[in-house]
Structures are given as C-alpha cells and as structure tokens.
Amino acid sequence: MELVPFSENDAAQLCAWIPDAKANFQWGGPAFSFPLTPDQICTHIAREEVAPYLVKHHQEAVGYIELFRVSDNEYRLCRVLIASPTQRGKGLGHQLVALALEKVRVIPNVYKVSLAVFAHNTAAISCYSSLGFVVLPDHTKTRFFNGESWTLLRMERWL
C-alpha cells in the first residue's frame, strides 16, 4: 500500500466512492454537500493547509486521506476512507493511517497528530486506538444529520 499525491484528476473517482448523503456526512462532515462533486473537492484541496493523498493497493486506487495542518506543531488526519465496503475490516485502514503517520513524522517540529471520528464508527475508533490515538473526553462535540444527533470524538497521539 502507498500514499500518492491526490490531484484534481482524481476528484471524480473520490466522488463516485461516496454513495449517499449519510456516507458523505460520515466521511466529510458538514464541509461537503451531497451529491459530492469534483468542484467541491477541487476547491477544498486547493487550500494551503490540506495535503490530500490517494491510497493505492496493488496499483489500484482504494481510498483517500488528508493531512490537515492545524498549526506548526500539529497535523490532523481527515477524511479517511477505504472506498469499498468489501475491503474494510481487512487491515487496510490500519496500514493507511500508519503510512499517514510516517508522512507526518518527517515534518519538522510536528509533535502531535489529531483526528475526529463519530462515536458510532467503532471500527475506526478501534483502528486509531491500535495506533496509539486516545480519546480526549473534554473535546467531544455533537453534529446533526437528518435529525439525528451524532457524537463526534476528538482523538490524538504524540509522535
């Protein structure tokens, strides 16, 4: 598995991986509207603090992740996605996050990596915990999707 720079040419593929409004919200939170469009993606990845990556496994694009610069000392993992539901639960997410952590480790002066995850996404929480992330109980938030309340957890780890 490898992370390769994501480009505007990959935006249509990413949009195709987000099948419905619920998946869109789980992946992108309130930052994107559904249906997700290449224009939304291209506008987002043009931001200076966003470093997007396409995830390739056996030369095939299988996912996406962003490194978001929060400050000179902190990066946030955002929009983590293994595209095919049939490929989830096989350790690809663990490999993906480990590769992202390797990229952050070589950035000078960065000592903290954070992320946000919905509390009902227990598989993701388990993955992140196995890589040393811990939940910050004082940073819990609530987001609303279609009248439902979704608890958003903040997790972090030190490098």
TrEMBL record:
The keyword Cell division does not apply. Residues 1-159 form the N-acetyltransferase domain. It holds the Pfam family Acetyltransf_1. InterPro entries: Acyl_CoA_acyltransferase (IPR016181), GNAT_dom (IPR000182). The keyword ATP-binding does not apply. Keywords: Acyltransferase, Transferase. Its EC number is 2.3.-.-. It comes from Enterovibrio norvegicus. One of its GO terms (molecular function) is acyltransferase activity. This is GNAT family N-acetyltransferase. SUPFAM superfamilies: Acyl-CoA N-acyltransferases (Nat).
